[in-house]
Specification:
Aspartate Aminotransferase, domain 2, Aspartate Aminotransferase, domain 1, 39% helix, 2 domains, 13% strand, PyrdxlP-dep_Trfase, binds pyridoxal-5'-phosphate, PyrdxlP-dep_Trfase_major, four-stranded antiparallel beta sheet, alpha/beta, single chain, globular, 429 residues, transferase
Amino acid sequence: GTLRSRCCKVRCVAAPAQEVTTGVKRNENIGKLQAGYLFPEIGRRRRAHQEKNPDAKIISLGIGDTTEPVPKSIADAMQKAAAGLATLEGYSGYGAEQGRGEVRQAICDRFYSHVGRKANEIFVSDGSKCDIGRLQMMFGASTSVAVQDPSYPVYVDSSVIMGMTDGYDESSKGFGKLEYMVCRPENDFFPDLSNARRTDLIFFCNPNNPTGAAATRKQLEELVAFARKNGSIIIYDAAYAIYISDPERPQSIFEIPGAEECALETCSFSKYAGFTGVRLGWTVVPEQLRYSDGFPVINDFNRIMTTVFNGASVVAQAGGFACLQDEGFKEMQELVAFYKENAAILRTTFKELGFSVYGGEDAPYVWVGFPGKPSWDVFAEILERCNIVTTPGSGFGPAGEGFVRASAFGHREDILEAVERFKKEFGGR
Ligand code: PLP
């Protein structure tokens, strides 16, 4: 009422000048974050470009959201579960905070029992991003953190919010106290662990978003040995594991012997079955994973999940369960294969145009090099010349400079149109 009209009379900008404030001091850790989170900034530039060019048909290879419908048997299962809620027999209220037993078992049977994990170690959730936040809450502000550079921005930003880092340093383009493990073509996109500082936690995204690189077995053995030697815990993000083509590249960290004593793994149906809006994921915490005093990490994660989470939606869980049945699993693999074809189309095009191209074989992201050019300039040039939105590599960390990420999530016709535009604009470069 009055407060708002008063503020709007004064000045309607992001932080309106206002006479009345609360006595609450802002969390100074949130204040350390850099103003423009990557994707809102991309959205802003896209809108500006559209305003300047109202007729332009902009194609987005940017944010990495899924575009294709949820497969039939999976959507049907959710529809049935939702309709059931309107009946006495089909109604259910709160479920177990850890997820329905049959869903935990089905995830285990499909992905983990062959590597020694058990259903009780699997926590079903509303997604991996949310689990990352809860893991940060569990480990607390006094843990030290390493991330791959470049990587999914959530590891860095949630660490900053928790207070695990110092402020942003303009010269290094990074946050103080955070260990950035550089992953570039020169080191096969795998960190030089012989020169990495010890940290309590190591966020490791494999296949990596944004580079699309998937580590070999030998590389993951090296990572596990490094964590075990240092007494670190690997937070292994397998959100794109199903996209791995090469049978020599592990799909789970638990394929590496000894990982159960130094790693937990988070994963998601988002990019497996188009569940970015449905919301369903899981985290695996092995019983053998212990704190320095011998206390099981799984007990604390259970405590966190029962305290600040109340179980994933029963409708979403019905969908997840259907993903893991034979029919749904096949449909899910076909969906993944479709996006992988998109990735192959993009990869081939950039290669033919003479760019240095990485990723796209074991991941839905293609990482294209523009050596010596600032990523944001490349982003702007591609938007200007092709009406195509990409993601500037520097948004994923300082070592992403000189690259842009192209996402393979898109309708086929848009991917084909995009490659035609690239060929036209960059063909004779
Ligand atoms: N982890 C990585 C590496 C991702 O790229 C994403 C989504 O883009 C997520 C986690 C988030 O997954 P969810 O939708 O399950 O929260």
